[in-house]
Design a protein that fits this description.
Shape: globular
Largest sheet: 7 strands, mixed
Radius of gyration: 22 Å
Mean pLDDT: 96
Strand content: 15-25%
Low-confidence stretches: none
Number of strands: 20
Helix content: 25-40%
Length: 483
């Protein structure tokens, strides 16, 4: 392994305020609830104090969004597109600042924030800006004889959006960009542990001269999100997060006329056949589960490897894991950053200990963990049975469970033996096998000879306990339209 000198990214580019308020009707205002602190998970240092929105604050935000809806939805699509293009360009101009703040608040390596998250954030705003004046030609509603849509799709109204802590700014873009392109206004609640880039995005909205009330951002814990979801003047709810909270939201929305999309948990199978390019597959496995510390709902947390190459692949995989660098998220050499919170670290430890007690064999490379912060080494389990908790429950951390199969049919059966259905990966040189497997796998996204590859033009979502509805692409537009 090469020894790399530290290459830290400077924090000076971020103007970190001591306290942040709510963003309502185009202005930052105080919250009525008790403020909370957000911390750097790599050091446990306090970053800032953040306002908590009460139900009254949420009501103010929703009413501001409702008031702004008439003028915003009445704008020609080309005019709305100008704002989205402007936001996308400002995101590009301030990408370094946003990437540093994301890594400080979330714990992910700076090279992931810089090279993955931020380019995708801008790309989503650019993509949906391009659709804003073409909604009547997107194929929604009944068809006319000339092939165009016979209906004029209309925005739904006020969208209440609740996003998670694993990709704070990217999840914001996934939700806000299509909502605005379609003419809706937004009340967004970021995760309690990662609110800072959403609040910096509020500044970008001001910089872009977005009309007041079109985007509102309310911070707080679960109670604030619940108030957004339950508000009677919210027309559309979009949530990304745990399956447990998704069930609560579905019950809250049931019986109302609110439109709902849920993107929930996952326990994806990454399936490697004996004819796969081994080194390429190893890189895909590493990217599938250790990217963003495994804080990925579509992470390839179950490795299904064909029995004939199990030993060879595991040897190569362990060798590769021994080269991963864990440490300071702002160091450009870092591969594995910090776990986002003490609560999440405790969950990862609990499930990993349970895996050992159930009889699976645990392995991690020699890895020195920093004294402060929330850290967990890259870990894999062999000898895993399908009944083990580590093969069934979403750990949401850098933990890989290894199972084997002999035939493609057995691989499909094992891959589908999960309550989730968000994603899957296939590694083989045979195109016919890829197509056959993809048709059989009950997963919303199937990657072939790659993993964790995202594009704003491609829809993303799941089946079963992974939720319903799609984000991204044309289907991401439809979720915010009355068609």
């Amino acid at each position: 392994m090469f020894e790399y000198a530290p290459a830290p990214e400077s924090r000076d580019i971020v103007d970190l305020k001591s306290s942040y308020g709510l963003f309502i009707n185009g202005e930052f205002v105080d919250g009525s609830g008790k403020p909370f602190k957000t911390v750097n998970p790599a050091t446990e240092e306090k970053l800032a104090e953040v306002a908590t929105a009460s139900s009254d604050d949420v009501d103010r935000a929703v009413q501001a969004a409702r008031k702004a809806f008439g003028a915003w939805s009445g704008l020609p699509g080309a005019e709305r597109a100008k704002y989205l293009f402007r936001i996308a360009r400002i995101i590009q101009e301030r990408a370094r600042e946003l990437a540093v703040l994301e890594s400080l608040d979330n714990g992910k390596p700076i090279r992931e924030s810089r090279d993955v998250d931020l380019p995708l954030v801008a790309a989503h705003f650019f993509y949906y800006a391009g659709w804003a004046d073409k909604l009547g030609y997107a194929g929604f509603g009944r068809r006319t004889t000339d092939g165009h849509s016979g209906a004029n799709p209309r925005p739904l109204g006020v969208a209440g959006q609740v996003i998670p802590w694993n990709f704070p700014l990217l999840m914001l873009a996934w939700k806000i960009a299509p909502a605005l392109a379609c003419g809706n206004t937004v009340v967004l609640k970021p995760a309690e542990t990662t609110p800072l880039t959403a609040l910096l995005f509020a500044e970008i909205c001001q910089q872009a001269d977005l009309p007041p009330g079109v985007v509102n951002i309310v911070t707080g814990a679960g109670e604030t999100g619940a108030a957004v979801v339950a508000h009677p003047d919210v027309n559309k709810v979009a949530f990304t997060g745990s399956t447990e909270v998704g069930r609560v939201i579905a019950r809250t929305v049931a019986g109302t006329d609110k439109k709902l999309t849920l993107e929930l948990g996952g326990k994806a199978a990454n399936i490697v056949f004996e004819d796969a390019a081994l080194d390429q597959a190893v890189e895909g496995i590493v990217n599938g589960i250790f990217f963003n510390q495994g804080h990925v709902c579509c992470a390839g947390s179950r490795l299904l490897v064909q029995e004939s190459i199990q030993d060879e692949l595991l040897t190569a995989l362990k060798r590769r894991l021994s080269t991963l660098r864990l440490g300071d998220p702002l160091d450009k050499n870092t591969d594995i950053g910090a776990i986002n919170s003490a609560e999440q670290l405790a969950k990862i430890r609990q499930l990993s200990d349970l895996g050992e007690s159930e009889g699976a064999e645990r392995w991690s490379p020699a890895c020195e963990l920093p004294a402060k912060g929330y850290w967990f080494p890259p870990t894999l389990f062999t000898g895993v049975a399908q009944s083990h908790a580590i093969a069934r429950e979403e750990i949401f951390g850098p933990v890989l469970s290894v199972l084997t199969f002999r035939t493609p049919a057995e691989a499909v059966e094992k891959a589908n033996n999960t309550p989730y259905g968000l994603s899957a990966g296939i590694w083989t040189e045979k195109g016919s096998r890829i197509l056959w497997m993809a048709d059989k796998l009950r997963a919303g996204v199937v990657w072939a000879n790659t993993f964790n590859r995202f594009d704003p033009t491609s829809p993303f979502g799941g089946y079963k306990e992974s939720g319903y509805g799609r984000e991204g692409g044309l289907l991401g537009l439809e979720a915010y339209l009355d068609v």
